Amino acid sequence: MKYISTRGQAPALSFEDAVLTGLASDGGLYVPENLPQFSKDTIAGWAGLSYDALAFEVIKPFVAGALTDEELRTIIQKAYSSFRHQAIAPLVQTGHNEWILELFQGPTLAFKDFALQFLGHLLDHILARRKQKVVVMGATSGDTGSAAIEGCSRCENIDIFILHPHNRVSEVQRRQMTTVLSDNVYNIALEGNFDDCQNMVKASFADQSFLPDGRQLVAVNSINWARIMAQIVYYFYAAVALGAPHRAVSFSVPTGNFGDIFAGYLARKMGLPVEQLIVATNANDILHRCISANDHSKKPLIHSLSPSMDIMVSSNFERLLFDLYGRDGKAIAELMASFKSGSMTLSESALQKAREVFSSYRLDDETMTKVIAGVYDTTGYLLDPHTAIGVEAARKCRANVSTPMVCLATAHPAKFPKAVAKAGVTDTPALPHHMADLFDREERYQVLANDLAGVHQYISGQLS
Ligand SMILES: *Cc1c(COP(=O)(O)O)cnc(C)c1O
């Protein structure tokens, strides 16, 4: 399978190169040239498959020519053996035909583990074959860093450097990163804010001459195609468990960079009967404004109680636009150029196509905490703040109560005790058993000044 850029100007790449490259040279994002199609009979035949077995069926066509069946099976098995629930992605019922898909059973208690556990083992496999070593570098304000570190911590061919703003991430989030003591994991606490961290990473990708010979940087942020691909699986898994393909299912997705919900859109295009996809946003609502009012304009960032969705612009939205514009790379390059002004307007036909499947809703912190309290009160089930936004959006946007509504639970409530306390829930959510000693574990991190040369000197010093 070949991968092409959404802006039409970069060369098509193999799966392997697309995964190692990240952003295309024309500024676009890589997408598969053709989407695999699964017939109704094929999907019906997946009833009862284990998560690993289903992941194999869904991912296989995307990696054709790059991985053998045996290699793919091994990578999947390694990736999901770190999840502590046997079902990997269990479903819990919270209302009439309303289900929570628990995507927080992985090592860092957020759905990002689905993609990053897979990506870590995939990269390690590709690199071993190429006899190549790379450096993963990233900036984090919370969840992504810990999931990336866990995903790469056992990889022999990867050194990983994650920058977080010193004293500006929560203690749970910091400890989830800094207590991973593998020799290839380096946590940098930068004396600056998240933007400083991100700028430092961007500058490092632009000029990699500080790295020792033969090393290159690899990005594991959500524009990496392999992350989207791994996320398609749980849409099939949940839908088949609830009766697909014989009946349609809807999904509500707490959305930030649009990676997660885009995977749901792809599942639908591949043959899964999906009736509605609900884009649930917090006060950073660019996608809600775009879908409901064709207003895709940048606004200042608001810091909310659902910090993993605090983004100004959703990078993966471009992948959807590419489809909505009939896969016309030139049109997307023009549209994205127009967005440099801070806003862009979708064509009527693109907007109409989006609305055939997407609905959207926005929730502020106050309403979100009421939802946590209300669901806890009626069912005893404790939602994390991101999931609560998804649940309320589903209830508000639902077109058809006889269609099962699956709300993606993107994080475990124990990661966000502040929001839970604000909701007035007095039982503090306990960390799961395997993390109960998190606050007693040894930490390792390096505090560095906000100075590019100093950071580069530190990184090259660790690598030689
Ligand atoms: C990353 C994240 C999201 C947003 O996912 P996108 O793929 O960026 O839309 C939502 N909830 C949690 C808990 C996250 O960590």
UniProtKB/TrEMBL annotation:
PROSITE patterns per record: DEHYDRATASE_SER_THR
Gene Ontology molecular functions: pyridoxal phosphate binding; threonine synthase activity
Pathway: Amino-acid biosynthesis; L-threonine biosynthesis; L-threonine from L-aspartate: step 5/5
Keyword Transferase appears in the UniProt entry: no
Domain of life: Bacteria
Catalytic activities: O-phospho-L-homoserine + H2O = L-threonine + phosphate
Protein EC: 4.2.3.1
N6-(pyridoxal phosphate)lysine modifications at: 112
Residue intervals of the Threonine synthase N-terminal domain: 2-80
UniProtKB keywords: Amino-acid biosynthesis, Lyase, Pyridoxal phosphate, Threonine biosynthesis
Cofactor(s) the protein needs: pyridoxal 5'-phosphate
Gene3D superfamilies (alphabetical): 3.40.50.1100, Threonine synthase, N-terminal domain
Tryptophan synthase beta chain-like PALP domain mapped to chain residues: 94-331
GO BP annotation list: threonine biosynthetic process
InterPro entries linked: Ser/Thr_deHydtase_PyrdxlP-BS, Thr_synth_N, Thr_synth_N_sf, Thr_synthase-like, Threonine_Synthase, TrpB-like_PALP, TrpB-like_PALP_sf
Top-level EC class: lyase
UniProt keyword Lyase present: yes
UniProt record similarity statement: Belongs to the threonine synthase family.
Protein name (Swiss-Prot/TrEMBL): Threonine synthase
